[in-house]
Amino acid sequence: MLCCNPGPAMESAEVESDILRRVRTLLRELDGHHPACQRDRGMLRWTLHKKIDQNPSNSPILVRILVKELERAERGDYRHYIIPLLHTLMYALIKAPCISDELCSRVYDFCKKLLTLPKPFCTIGLDYAARLKMERTTPGMLYQRMVISEQSLRSDPYPYQEKIFIFADPELLSEAICKALLTDTEAARVSQSPRACMCYVITHTVQAALGEGCDLSALRTRLQGMPSSEVEHWFQEVVMAVECTGSQVAADRGQHVERLQSIYSAILSSSPPGDAPLEGLQGTPLPNPNISFHLWTEDDQLWKELVLFIRPLSQSCEPDRLSQDLDNFEIQDIISDCECCEQTRFSVLSTDSGIERDLPPSAEEPFAPCSADTEQSRLHRKGGIKKKPSPLESVAFLQTGCNGPGTKPAAKVQRRVGIPTEPTAPLLRLHTARIVLLGDDRILGRLAQAYHSLRKRETRRVFLTPRLNLQFYYVPVTGQPGTPAAANPSATSPEELCEVAAYLGRADPWYESNINTLCHMIPKLATMVFFSSSAQEPAEDVFLTELCAQVQDSISSREVNPTKKKTTLDGPGIDLTVTYRKVVVSDRAKEVSLSLRSTGLSMKAIPANTAEDLACLNVNITEVVRINNLSGRSFSTVANKLKTCNIKIRSTEQRPFTLCLDKDSRRTYRSVVSLEVSPCLEPSYCLQKSRTMKFSLQEAEDVGLVKYMPKSLLLPINTFAGVIQ
């Protein structure tokens, strides 16, 4: 049998053909031609992005295909294709490692063409054209701003913050799905540290500017070895460079690249030069946004969460006190307003002309010394109501606490006649709250009631409106068995309870294919292994000789991930992302990342001969490779061997695998989606290390007594030749 491996040109053509097929399928769904499997509806766009995430170097191929489809839709007057394709393109462009200026220019020119069309095409085209103009001059700016705002990273040049609030109807969601959503959002929040997000911004922005001239592996390794304060310093330098270039009227891309090149060189200046060749463009993860999950049980719950979002953390008090202050804020507001109304009013006949020169001489000296009686009469207050001060007692306190980079303190009262007061600068809306509602038309009714109440508060005392961008999103959910709504059925059918969603679907085909089709999927999320397992607490264990991992075959790929279509391009096994530290000849550790398809792997700690290092793992990954032959396409497996001390493996499809430690069936872990293996540390070393770090600024180096303590936990076994560690 004659076999041959596909060349780079053939591989690229296959990838482009596969991406084009996925895009065309997405467009056919907009025309009402649904896929054969109804469970795939609404997930086509996300599977497309997931495909690109597995190989970020294919991002320019996707952008190029989407531009061609946009131009074809504009020529053929398929306007309902334009907005979905444009949203998909912009998301791919933001996540792409590096996009050429020629490709950005084509997208920019198309967005300018949309300005001649009616709304909403001209509005969206203008917004995206402005963003693309900045991205062409300062590559990586859109990604940087998205991460800074969604993660609320401290940055004076770009002080914007965003947060997603999910409000769910407890009558429609079962206890299992509520726990799953709460656990998943909390796990996503805990797993993303500000330090990691800052590193993402640095690496993506530098690579977007320098392209293939950026050694991303060396940059990541250098950032990982830095103290957090130094990482924050370089993060601020990168943000300042990007925002300064973006704010210039006639910004020069060449000067921007020079600035990023100097920062890149400065970061790597303390690292020894490496001889390894550059690995090309690599993707940078886009962190999950800041999400909080709430069951809507109180009428004023929305207003309270928005106030807590605006209020700086530095002025937060105890939770119980803060909750009480929020509850009493409205009452205190009314009392405060009534104080002025309850005062005794005196009618005084005015005899002055209103002209400053006609005032008596005493009026020209308002700051002259006065007697004690006069001063006491001036300070006398009548009919006031004394109340206990509170952090949320007045909006003045809240406004003072929210004076950020875009605000000015309120003008002081000028006592001198004829001196005008200093005008206050308008407040900038530095906060964006995206409210996502899970439920049917009834939760929208509660939203209308809450929004009306919020507007009434703002009419009396403006606080949220000038500081907050408020955006509402609606994801319809139908009642399921086991929920309170199912226990008390009404005469109204589920279709009648989702009239708003049906209307939105008729007005927007993209909403129909991406949102309405998911209303039956959300209640099933709690039963999917990949949803619950990825949010579980990580388990920690120790193995001595061997770790084996196999694809879990008790659950089919369709049950675990209904969005995954198994095609001939995939083959057996699951897609894995492997990150490990490779030891080169110069004894310097180099971090290597690779993506492959595998049916299983094993890690052995016992070397084949005594000359090898016991601390090094021998990893054997069974990799699935595709071959082309005369009879068609087939698959085979090869052994991918590597040596390392630290390794991380993750299933990119969220399909689980099974782990077995030391060949002991009693030590088996099922439904595993990721694992991390590193040398076992001596507990006494860890304890002393934590104590030392409290009093030392050195984070990477061992100082004091720690330097002389054993770092690894060794298992001493007695033999006739002595003790072997």
Explained architecture:
InterPro entries: PIK3R5/6. One of its GO terms (cellular component) is phosphatidylinositol 3-kinase complex, class IB. One of its GO terms (molecular function) is 1-phosphatidylinositol-3-kinase regulator activity. This is Phosphoinositide-3-kinase regulatory subunit 6. Helix content is 41%, strand content 17%. The protein has 725 residues and is of the alpha+beta class. Strands 1, 6, 7, 8, 9, 10, 11, 12, 13 and 14 form a ten-stranded antiparallel beta sheet that branches. Strands 3-2-4-5 form a four-stranded parallel beta sheet, sandwiched between helices. Strands 15-16 form a two-stranded antiparallel ribbon. Strand 7 and strand 8 form a beta hairpin. Helix 9 crosses helix 12. The N terminus is likely disordered.
Instruction: Enumerate the spans where pLDDT stays under 50 for 5 or more consecutive residues.
Output: 1-7, 316-320, 330-352, 362-382, 386-418, 530-535, 554-568
- Quaternary state reads single chain
Global outline: globular
Helix content: 40-55%
Question: Given the helix and strand composition, which structural class is it?
Answer: alpha+beta
Alpha carbon gyration radius = 31 Å
Q: Compute the number of helices.
A: 23
Quote the average pLDDT: 74
The largest sheet is:
10 strands, antiparallel
- Quick one: how many beta strands? 16
Estimated share of beta-strand residues: 15-25%
The separation of the N and C termini measures 51 Å
InterPro entries: PIK3R5/6 (IPR019522)
Organism: Gallus gallus (Chicken)
Protein name: Phosphoinositide-3-kinase regulatory subunit 6
GO molecular function, one term: 1-phosphatidylinositol-3-kinase regulator activity
